Every structure is written in structure tokens, then in C-alpha cells.
Amino acid sequence: MSDLEFFFDPVCPFAWLTSRWVVEVQDQREYDVTWRFICLAIINEDRTSDWYTPEYRAGHHRGRQALRVADQVRLTADNAAVARLYTELGVAYHQQQRRDEMRADPVAFIAAALDAAGLDPALAAHADDESHDAYLRSETELAFARTGPDVGTPIMTFQPGTEAEASFFGPVISKTPRGAEALRLWDAVEVLAHSRVAELKRSNRDPLDFT
User: What is this structure's pTM?
Assistant: First the structure.
């Protein structure tokens, strides 16, 4: 049983920044983290809002393609391999800003991330395998069952499967905290997660910083 479950979509920049914070704390406190999936393409599949442009929808589909491959890694390897793939996808897509490469050829982009993660690049063929979508949908539904609807990614669950289980959307951060700062934020968030607080929000955000 893990100490934390983290639901991510690879194309979400906020999930990536938060995941790096999770890893920072994991390295300092030896948390056992299970990396799980939430699919923005599935969340928004029926959305007709003006802001949800064809380009936006296409970007979310590329996230689904990466998640299909991550699901195959889950099935054939282990959670640590999923974590390595997510790391390499995030480094290339968010930190190195190689998004044009993924737009041009998602399968090749994912294959390169697999190779960097020490996994078989041939697994990228699963990017177009719709048989994975049922599992992605079940993971997305599970995440929403824990937090309620109308949220996004990331979703975190502390102490899953125990009486102390607590889930929430976020935190949405613009830069990954490091060292002692990361631990201070973690302790505060964990207290809030186990409290009766349902929402703490502001719309003003600092520019994204992937350093």
C-alpha cells in the first residue's frame, strides 16, 4: 500500500510542476508514491465551450496517447517504470518545450521518451491502441469519485485505502519548491487534506517556471 497516489495527465503543466514537488518530498522522506492516470481528453470529451478549441482538444488527445503507452508500461513493467516515463515525457514536453515535436509526430516523441526512460521504444505503438481507454476512463472516474466533479489534474490521495484516506485537486503551483520549502508546503497541504476545508483558491498566478 502506497503513502500517496498521484493522478496525472502528461500534457498538464501544473500536474508536472506538482509531480516534481512530490518527488522532491519523496526523496527527503521516502514516501511510496503510486503514479495513476487522469485523462483530460476524457474529462472534456463532451465539452462545447468556445475556449475548448480544436487545438486544445488535439493537445488533450496527445496526452491520452501518452497515457495509453503509460498504461502498457504499467501492465508490462511496474510503477517505477511509469514514473520514469512520466519524468522523461515531462522533461521533453514541459522543461525543454519540445511541444512542436509531439504535435508533428506523437508516436516518435513518446518513443524517444521511452528510450530515455530505459524502456522499449516499440511500446509507443500503443499510442493509437484504444483498448487502453477503458482503463483510463476508470482511473479518471475513480479520481473524481474521491474529489467530486469539476476539477482537473493533478489529483492527490494521501494514505489511500486507509481510514485516513484524503484526496484533493492540486495544489496548483507555478514553480516547484525545493528542499525545506518543499517540506513546509507538504506539511501544510497534508493538514488541509485531512481537514474539512473544501476549497482554497485564487485566480492570480505567477508565470510558469519549469527550472
Answer: 0.95
